[in-house]
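Next comes the chain:
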Amino acid sequence: MMFWLIISIILGAIAAVSLIYNAVKDTKIDALEYEVAYLTHVLFEKQIPHRELTDEEIRQIKDAWNKRIK
């Protein structure tokens, strides 16, 4: 009985760690997608922004480039 309790706790801890690891990895991938969208916008558009873009503007740029790619 005690053996199964310990095994259950260990498996639960492994599941929790893998969920946290995947969440961090997804956040890094999203940040990289926004950076790529911003850089492609700067490279291929005629007007280069002379100010920092807001998150909403970068999200719109990313969505526009995703539509062009698909």
In short: Residues 38 and 65 are 10 Å apart (CA to CA).
